Amino acid sequence: MRERMLPWLVADWGNPSSRHSFGVKARTAIDHSREQVAHALGAKAERVVFTSGGTEANNLAVLGSARARRQHGVHILVGPAEHPSVRDPALALIDEGFDVEVGQLGSDGAFDIDAFLASVREDTVLVSLMLASNEHGSIYPVARVAAGVRRIAPHAHIHTDAVQALGKLEVDIVELGVDSVSISAHKVHGPKGTGALVLASELPIRPLVFGGGQEGAVRSGTENVAGIAGFGEAVQLADEALVTTRAHLSSLKQRLADGLAEIDGMRVLTPGGSKETLGSIAAVLVGGPPAEVYLHHLEERGILVSVGSACQAHKNEASPALLALGLSAEEARQVLRFSFSRESQVSEVDAALEVLQALAGELSTL
Amino acid sequence: METNPGLVLVRYGELAIKGKNRFEFENALRRNISKAANEIAPSTVIKTRGRMVVRPERRMERVARRLQDVFGIASVSPAYAAERSIESITKVAGEELARAMEAYPTTQRIKFRVAARRADKRFHLTSQDINVAVAEALLPSIEDRIDIDLKNAELQLGIEVREEAAYVFATRLPGSGGLPVGTLGRGICLLSGGIDSPVAAWMMMKRGCRVIYVSFHSAPFIGDSSKRKIEQLVRSLSRFQPKSRLYSVPFTNIQMAIRDHAPESYRTVLYRRQMQKLAARIARREKAGCLITGESLGQVASQTMENLTCIGAATSTPVMQPLIGFDKQETIDIAHKIGTFELSIIPEPDCCTVFMPSRPIIRGKLEECEAAEEGYELDELIHQALAGAERIDID
Q: For all residues of chain B together, what is the average pLDDT?
């Protein structure tokens, strides 16, 4: 990946929109990444819209598709635990006269597909449901939801945020049956600041950024060639390693869950007892003091974990996604998020368990 | 993770009746299937009696869709293998039915049938026996959602009992028909970047011809982005044959010589004659039997009967023109279907737009063409162009 990116950072300064050979070279590099991304998602290369990351891809999907479908209706339905980059732009559309509904989870924290589909209306113009949760790794039945939405709402744009799922789960735009998929480079060890909205077919999307008509006029602005070059390579590498990655992550998460079972008051959250979860994320209810205290104690011992979603760290409020699981506001602050990658080691999980075991005694007296 | 990873059952049509050449056809088909499937996921291909069985490590559904573009295939089904016992068949059939039913709303009743086929007559149950046994075993648990309907079934569960295993499937996707690419020789397609020539190439591939592409380049009158467009077209067409090769031939000097020495009205016809001569040389190098062009009678000024005759007479290599009787719209429809239309309409100048005559000849005469090629070193320029040709292999 580094080799693919480097020329665009140090020597090749061609603008991909220029018609001279330097420009064509840059455009060809983007073409190649476009094919790599398209291949991983089973999409067509010309339907890949590069963005500045998952957040922009989600904003573009929500705002762009809803605005383009205004003549067909105003109803929008988003999943119960969407990332703020889906939920917030959807809520912002209320000011433009849209009727925005946020789905609810069942009392056990499980996703109820029939209840969700019951909220879809004939005039629904946008449904957005994440493929896998960024906070606890739950996998949502996007393909079945998409099939259900199609039967009720002929004009609905169906979007899924697959930022978390990419590289850990098969993401096939045709099999999912959705109209668009958001992905981000940094979730597959790619460069931060690059992502894409991938469309299933030629669909109307209103741009958020206007200008020179790059990216099929959906996302103007000179492309981030180095970032995109690295993104393509990262996606391909993650895709090739998918099967082994998935098995590896599941075994790490299982090891963590088994170890936590031995520690009083700690457990991995499994919404609705769901077996279908990503192995890459484990939300751990630690009990006692706020999870941030654990975070820094773990950090001191070289283990880096998160509290809630990194993207929400700037907002000092309990995560809606965790509250949706039926946790109290206090419990929602006692959730640590462990993230594993294909490079994580069994020894690291064991070390974390050891530290948690020690901390449990130490911190419970606080 | 799924315990039963699934496979793709491939049915082939026309080549099943190709008599003595059957092995050759089957081997070519198998190679082409293997190449296409392995683009999606590591896969093995096994030839069984009248079928190919593709086992991808993952992405069975996408492999099945990919094979829809491989010529020589009648239809494909994502399928699951069962052991050759009615218990195993019933179990796998139940799992496949449950998956297929997910696509229907829980409130809707589904018209359903089982369609078994006993390809291996040594199996102890007849097709009808299998139908009855499987239906009877599955029905009790799904009676509230299923109506047996033999005539108008919307969901049909296929079962094939073959020598090596039984296969169960709920969908059947149409193939592209035609014959396996590579079984009926090679042709050199003159690719302009327009709508027609990619369609012509596709039609020849459909009938088993391996296509090698030639494009002509007029640098510095046109830039690299035209080359990029041609490469994108070849890349797009490469999903119909396992490997593609493109020759990019510098054409500017030939055009300038014609501009300087020949009557202006004849320029386009003369350009095309030289292109065919160059393509014929490449055909010899590649052991290709024909040239392929996207000509359609009367579509543009250079495509009158007289002009086509002048152009065709430039070489003794046969020129195949699969679109000759097509209306423009018919060609456009295919271009959409095969995914080249959007690339073709990207506005990029091609070499035919350089030094275009203001009034091109409508009814060219061969003697005039030949006379207009005399007296300057066209042969030498053709030789140089060939030496400067760039070869690009697209895998």
A: 90
**Pairing label, strands A48-51, A195-199:** antiparallel
| Residue contact A44–B65, C-beta within 8 A | no
The 8-class DSSP code of residue B81 comes to E
Q: Are residues B374 and B230 in the same domain?
A: yes
pLDDT of residue B2: 44
Look at residue B63 and tell me if it is in a domain: yes
pLDDT at A16: 87
- The answer as to whether B283 is a domain residue is yes
Could you say which of B62, B105, B228 has the minimum Cβ distance to residue A24?
B228
Inter-chain contact B61–A172, Cβ cutoff 8 Å? yes
- The predicted-structure confidence for A81-140, as pLDDT tens digits, reads as follows 899 999 999 999 999 999 999 998 877 778 889 899 999 999 999 999 999 988 888 899
- HEC per residue, B171-229: CCEEEEECECCCCCCEEEEECCCCCHHHHHHHHHHHECCEEEEEEEECCCCCCHHHHHH
The whole-angstrom separation of Cα A12 and Cα A15 is 9
Quote the number of domains for chain B.
2
Question: CB distance B224–A174 less than 8 Å?
Answer: no
CATH superfamily, domain A244-363, is: Aspartate Aminotransferase, domain 1 (3.90.1150.10)
CA angle A274, A278, A284 (to 5 degrees): 75
Q: How many CB atoms lie within 10 A of CB B224?
A: 18
Can you tell me the distance from the alpha carbon of A23 to that of B326, in angstroms, rounded to the nearest whole number? Answer: 38
**Residue B242 and residue B316 in one domain:** yes
CB A189 within 8 A of CB A1: yes
Which H, E and C letters describe A291-359, residue by residue?
A: HHHHHHHHHHCCCCCEECCHHHCCCCCCCHHHHCCCCCHHHHCCEEEEECCCCCCHHHHHHHHHHHHHH
The answer to whether B314 and B274 are in contact (CB under 8 A) is yes
Kindly indicate the confidence band of residue B15, based on its pLDDT and cuts at 50, 70 and 90. low
Structure tokens, B355: 């030094």
Domain that holds residue B261: 186-394
- Asked if residues A62 and A90 have their Cβ atoms less than 8 Å apart, the reply is yes
SS3 B307: helix
- The 10s digit of each residue's pLDDT in B31-52 is 999 999 999 999 999 998 889 9
Per CATH, the architecture of A2-240 is what?
A: 3-Layer(aba) Sandwich (3.40)
pTM, full prediction: 0.85
Of B260, B247, B241, B276, the residue nearest B355 (C-alpha) = B260
The CATH number that applies at residue B86 is: 3.30.2130.30
Distance from CA of A157 to the nearest CA of B (A): 18
* pLDDT computed for residue B20 by the predictor: 67
Chain A positions in Cβ-Cβ contact with residue B105 (cut-off 8 Å):
148, 151
Please indicate whether residue A311 is annotated as part of the active site: yes
DSSP notation for A69-98: TGGG--EEEE-TT--HHHHHHHHHGGGGT-
Burial status of residue A204 (CB atoms within 10 A of its CB: 0-12, 13-18, 19 or more): exposed
Extents of the domains making up chain A = 2-240, 244-363
List of E strands, chain A: 48-51, 75-78, 99-102, 124-128, 157-161, 180-184, 195-199, 267-268, 281-285, 306-307, 335-339
